[in-house]
Amino acid sequence: MKHYFIQNFKSGLAIFFAATIFVLITTSCCKDCNCEDNKKIDYTKFFIAHAGGAIDGIKYTNCLEALDLSYSKGCRLFELDLSLTTDGKIVAAHDPPGITEAEFMNRPILGKYTPLNMEAINGWFRAHSNAVLITDKLNDPKKIQKEFQFRNRVIMELFTWEAVDTAMQLKIKPMVSENLIFGTSKKAIEMGIKPQLRLRNSEIEQILLQKKIEFICMSRYYCIAGNEDFLRGLKEKGIKNYVFHLELPYPIPGQSAEKYIWDYEMNFCYGMYANDLDLLTTLLEK
Fold this sequence. Notes:
Layout (H helix, E strand, L loop, with lengths): L1 H26 L19 E3 L14 H9 L4 E8 L5 E3 L8 H5 L12 H10 L4 E5 L4 H7 L6 E5 L2 H9 L3 E4 L2 H4 L3 H5 L10 H10 L4 E5 H4 L4 H9 L3 E5 L12 H8 L6 E4 L3 H8 L1
Parallel strand pairs: 1-2, 1-9, 2-4, 4-5, 5-6, 6-7, 7-8, 8-9
Antiparallel strand pairs: 2-3
């Protein structure tokens, strides 16, 4: 009788462990920690084509050809640096070009790439109805509301709380810049925006939650400078942090900066401003 009991106990224990392992496997979640019912992961939401994405190994062109190439690689989120010409028109350029819109459009970027003004940007997003524009540099939601035709497909990186509040009033999704989280950023200073008052982590977290902010962005270097727990906590609360400045301090043979961040740093950020979209293509092919 004792032998029979032990045999049945061992069998039951084996079944229990097998069932437990099965449940763990079938309910395991992806990097996003938001998977439901083992649905296919939408990898496109983790990658933003930085300044349109790199083309011919060249970064930050903000050109038509870069948008086309990034789209062909599977990207659906596209960042463009938006600056003003001398006659007050929006064009895709990292810095104000110091010329008129007409002059800008008649000068191929690096002598061979097609420049973009708002007419061209609207045309491209009209032709790519599942693409989303992420803006940089321009801290003026009213101007985007007036000139970009697809308000439900734009996210604006913004550098002052006033601009964030204005965007939300206009039903434009804001992406809160590192300038408003850590008190300063090189980018904001270059734009003439004075450093904001630095708040403690807990206070910033409450502001982001109260305003129901969905997106933030920052240099990757802020993420690895002792802020990991803070940023991990924001991610757990549903705030999506996209990082830029992906360059690694030293090259790793056979591994891009995007792949390194994907493998080792996605626990405290949500996605990245990618120059190289080859990793996205690889993930989509799985």
